Amino acid sequence: MTAVFAIRLDNEGMNDRNVQLVAETAWAVRQCVIALKNKDDYAGFRYFPGGACKWTSAILQRVLAEAGLGGWVHRHGNNFPDGDSHTWLELDGWFLDVTLDQFSGFERRAVYLERNLHPQTSIYPNQGVVETTWIDDSETLTRALNDVNRMLGDQRSPAQPSHHRAAAPAVPFVGGSSA
Question: Cα–Cα distance between 140 and 133 in angstroms, integer?
Answer without folding.
Answer: 14
